[in-house]
Amino acid sequence: MFRHMMKGKIHRARVTEANLNYVGSITIDEDILDEVDMLPNEKVQIVNNNNGARFETYIIPGERGSGVVCLNGAAARLVQEGDVVIIISYGLVSEEDAKNHQPKVAIMNEKNEIIEMLGTEPASTVRI
């Protein structure tokens, strides 16, 4: 059996742009993608902390060091510039490997800079 496990997470990123006229997807700074082991065209779930919207799309790599987090196409209707979002990728992990699986979780600041990397999530995120 395989389990669908969180593989990577970008926690509390700020939306830098919402581009309704693009074909679709989310553009993310490629440096951030490297840190959380996410790839171009990978399916991700987006959770908008400001309005509660939850949706899925795929990744387009953005300019390295830019801090870009841009929702494109129809997804642009679910966010506004400045919204705080959580971006989550998942992977299928064998039953045996799932017990020791460690996701890569990036805690972001208001400039979309990684301030902390976690291998697991704390029981409470009050400090964030």
UniProtKB/TrEMBL annotation:
The lineage of its organism: Bacteria, Bacillati, Bacillota, Bacilli, Bacillales. Belongs to the PanD family. This is Aspartate 1-decarboxylase. One of its GO terms (molecular function) is aspartate 1-decarboxylase activity. It comes from Anaerobacillus alkalilacustris. Catalyzes the pyruvoyl-dependent decarboxylation of aspartate to produce beta-alanine. The modification Pyruvic acid (Ser) is found at S25. Keywords: Autocatalytic cleavage, Cytoplasm, Decarboxylase, Lyase, Pantothenate biosynthesis, Pyruvate, Schiff base, Zymogen. Substrate binds at T57, G73, A74, A75. Its main location: cytoplasm. It is an enzyme of class 4 (lyase). Heterooctamer of four alpha and four beta subunits. One of its GO terms (biological process) is alanine biosynthetic process. Binds 1 pyruvoyl group covalently per subunit. NCBIfam families: panD (TIGR00223). Pathway: Cofactor biosynthesis; (R)-pantothenate biosynthesis; beta-alanine from L-aspartate: step 1/1. It is found in: Cytoplasm.
